[in-house]
C-alpha cells in the first residue's frame, strides 16, 4: 500500500488545523485574514494552471463571466454594507434610549 494517498489527506488537514493557531499568533483582523485566504490560493492556482498545465483561463464568452462576477461582487458588497448600516442603526437607537433613560434620574 502506498503512503502517498495518506499524505494527500494528512497534510491539508494539518494546514487547516494549524490555520486557527496561526491567526491567533499573528493577531490579524478578520478582513486581513480573509483577504489572504482568498488571494494566496487564487494566485497559486492561477500560476499553476497558466504556466504548468498550460490552460487557457479565458475562453469563449468571457465577457459574460466577467459581468456575472462583477454583479456577484456588487451583491456581496451591498449585503455587507446593509449589515454594517443595520448594526450602526441599532447602536444609535440604543444610545438614544440610554440617554432618554438617564434624563429621568
Description:
There is one protein chain. This protein is flat. The chain contains three helices and no strands. It is an all-alpha fold. It folds into two domains: 1-57; 59-105.
Q: How helix-rich are the residues, as a percent range? A: over 70%
Oligomer status: single chain
Percentage beta strand: under 5%
Q: Major β-sheet, in short?
A: none
Summarize the helix and strand pattern as letters. Answer: HHH
Let me know the number of strands.
0
Domains counted in the coordinates: how many? 2
Quick one: overall form?
Answer: flat
Overall pLDDT score: 81
Low-confidence stretches are: none
Query: Measured on Cα atoms, how large is the radius of gyration?
Result: 23 Å
**Main structural class:** mainly alpha
> CA-to-CA gap between the ends?
78 Å
Per DSSP, the total helix count is: 3
